Amino acid sequence: MKLNGFVGAALAALFVSVAYAAPVATDPMAEKVLAQMSSAFKNRAWSGMMMYTRGEQSVSLQFHQDVVGGKTIERIERLSGDPIQVMRRGNWLLGLYPGNESLRRGHNLPTGSMPALGQRIQHIKNHYTLELGAPTRVAGRSATPITLRANDQYRYSRRYWCDNETGLMLRSQTLNHSGSVLEQFEFVSIELGAPIDEDTLVVDAQGMQVFRHALVENTLTESTPIIKLPKGFMPLGQGAPDQEIITHLFSDGVALVSVFYEQVAGPAPEVTAFQGPTRALSRVLAQGTDYFKVTLVGEVPEALLKGLLEQIDTTRLPGLIRG
Known about the structure:
Layout: H1 3-20, H2 28-43, E1 46-54, E2 57-68, E3 71-78, E4 85-89, E5 92-98, E6 102-105, E7 109-110, H3 117-124, E8 128-132, E9 136-138, E10 141-150, E11 157-163, E12 169-175, E13 181-192, E14 208-216, E15 234-238, E16 246-251, E17 256-264, E18 271-275, E19 278-287, E20 290-298, H4 302-310, H5 317-322
């Protein structure tokens, strides 16, 4: 996967993952800080410049967020390399990429809802160990680092630096099992509080391919073909049931995993891919004379994706796809 495509996907994923990144804690003070971080992202107007780093590659990003009429409007623009933009307004997510000027409808993206704070803390503390660090500085502001250290091989550790005054997340890291940083987002400058000029939140689609995705908040109520979920993971949401590709979303309260199901004409080789912490695994499964492609994507180790695939009951796939 090329970097520009990956960064576009990373920007879109950030809109979802930030909302689910907090609050998770076993320490009362850390719980307070992370809860503040979660509400700060939802309720504040702010803008800033951020560096995204993966390995030896990095790109600069410009963020804008405002709250208009009780609804959050967000825009991310890539400042280095190809001019990729991602914008969320209400229940729509727009992705703009260089290419022939066009407007296309993308797949519906499920969002789902996390359990209440108290339930979530009790759930998460069984799978992560929380460590509160000493205050430091990020983007010229005082911040407190909080580490969520994974207790098993099925999830990555996370580290967040939360602004001491506002609770905004100023830096985030995803760590592998040896402690190496797989991916980092870090603000280098940020402006808080002032409403953002309306023109800043308008995208220029001239000469761009525009993909328009509906954000669907549907609880995953239908039967999943997965017989047993990995420890700690729970159903979170699903896409619209009338789509050619059925989407289910799962989470352990921190990590997100999307599972896509679609009927295909015949067998195909298994495909794996990864960029930083994001892993993808696709396999075609047979049920009688029918074939179904199952694709799993998430910021989780490959072991978790393979474990999910092994738990799929193929007899449930025809009913899932055909309704």
